[in-house]
């Protein structure tokens, strides 16, 4: 009882600290990236924090899996370095005895990882896509800062405007440079207003002129107008079928088993299964020799996580390209990882028992302190 409670407390404390550290690093990176997107005109500045929240929720499953893996390796590695493991091994507690309390502590986290992957990940991506799409559907005039030149979404127009209304649909002193394949036009107007007709968006200009230049012949045309209406673009509502696979719910992925959808489902289920395998791998990879000055178990564990995560992404690509099926990809990767974790755990456990049964050995030429089994 004391063994289980002490181990769970140490793991919980180490997991909490690791989550805070990794989450701080990830949030800083995501904030910098989101601010860059807002500065580039991809997202609305007022939606930065909301988009950051949705993106962070999507990455929580990966953060929890990595933090859990690091916490197990760090906690058990500390017990090796401080010779606590030697005491437990001498008391008849093998390394396999650590699996039960570790799984009891990590079970809620593994369940949270599965829910985050299968439910929260597509929900967050869907809301992020809606924020970006809503900003893209706003009028070009509403995205132009007063007194500054800015390019439209499709890159064919350059705007300069003095905004005249709070909603950005009306502006004064409008300047528009339009460049097409064979023509280039400069339109100026005293006043401009955005109007909607169905899904189409029109720009209505008042009291202005339009100067057109034919690039092929060099002919110039100057025309003045009192009212001029031009189609800016057509707004097409995106349906659920047009959502990317990462923004589609897991049930919809199962209902529409296209290669891309199955690839996305392979990644989601694979990360949930990978988190469980990483728990078992962490127990075996935490072993270290307390007599050595440098311990590389944490570095090896991080390298193992990177390799495993890249293999999960690789299986997603293979399933999406129809090089393999979803069951085969999951069984080949995660079944192999489970067998490897069990073999590593068995080898560590039996090597420790063999060492204790053989007793301490002396180093060659050493008549003093006995050596220890590595």
UniProtKB/TrEMBL annotation:
TM spans (from-to): 12-32, 52-76, 105-124, 265-284, 296-314, 326-347
Membrane topology reported for the UniProt record: Multi-pass membrane protein
Protein name per UniProt: Lipopolysaccharide export system permease protein LptF
Major place of residence: membrane
Subcellular location: Cell inner membrane
Organism, as annotated: Roseateles subflavus
Pfam families: LptF_LptG
Record keywords: Cell inner membrane, Cell membrane, Membrane, Transmembrane, Transmembrane helix, Transport
């Amino acid at each position: 009882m004391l063994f289980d409670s002490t181990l769970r407390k140490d793991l919980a404390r180490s997991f909490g600290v690791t989550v805070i550290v990794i989450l701080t690093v990830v949030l800083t990176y995501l904030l910098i990236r989101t601010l860059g997107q807002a500065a580039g005109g991809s997202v609305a500045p007022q939606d930065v924090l909301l988009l950051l929240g949705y993106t962070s929720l999507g990455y929580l499953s990966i953060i929890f899996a990595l933090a859990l893996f690091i916490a197990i390796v760090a906690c058990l590695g500390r017990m090796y370095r401080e010779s606590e493991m030697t005491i437990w091994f001498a008391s008849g507690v093998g390394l396999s005895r650590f699996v039960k309390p570790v799984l009891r502590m990590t079970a809620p986290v593994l369940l949270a990882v599965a829910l985050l992957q299968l439910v929260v990940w597509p929900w967050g991506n869907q809301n992020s896509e809606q924020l970006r799409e809503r900003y893209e559907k706003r009028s070009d005039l509403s995205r132009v800062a007063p007194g500054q030149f800015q390019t439209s979404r499709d890159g064919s127009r350059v705007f300069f405007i003095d905004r005249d209304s709070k909603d950005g649909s009306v502006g004064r002193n409008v300047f528009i440079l339009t460049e097409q394949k064979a023509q280039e036009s400069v339109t100026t107007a005293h006043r401009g207003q955005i109007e909607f007709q169905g899904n189409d968006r029109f720009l209505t200009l008042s009291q202005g002129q339009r100067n057109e230049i034919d690039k092929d012949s060099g002919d110039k045309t100057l025309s003045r107008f009192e009212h001029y209406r031009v189609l800016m673009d057509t707004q097409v509502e995106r349906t659920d079928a047009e959502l990317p696979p990462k923004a589609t719910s897991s049930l919809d992925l199962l209902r529409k088993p296209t290669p891309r959808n199955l690839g996305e489902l392979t990644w989601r289920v694979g990360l949930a299964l990978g988190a469980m395998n990483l728990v078992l791998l962490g127990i075996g990879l935490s072993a270290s020799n307390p007599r050595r000055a440098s311990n590389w178990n944490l570095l090896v564990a991080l390298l193992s996580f990177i390799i495993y995560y890249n293999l999960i992404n690789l299986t997603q690509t293979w399933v999406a390209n129809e090089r393999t099926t979803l069951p085969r990809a999951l069984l080949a990767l995660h079944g192999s990882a489970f067998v490897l974790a069990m073999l590593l755990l068995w080898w560590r456990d039996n090597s420790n028992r063999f060492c204790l049964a053989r007793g301490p050995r002396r180093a060659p030429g050493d008549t003093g302190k006995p050596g220890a089994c590595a």
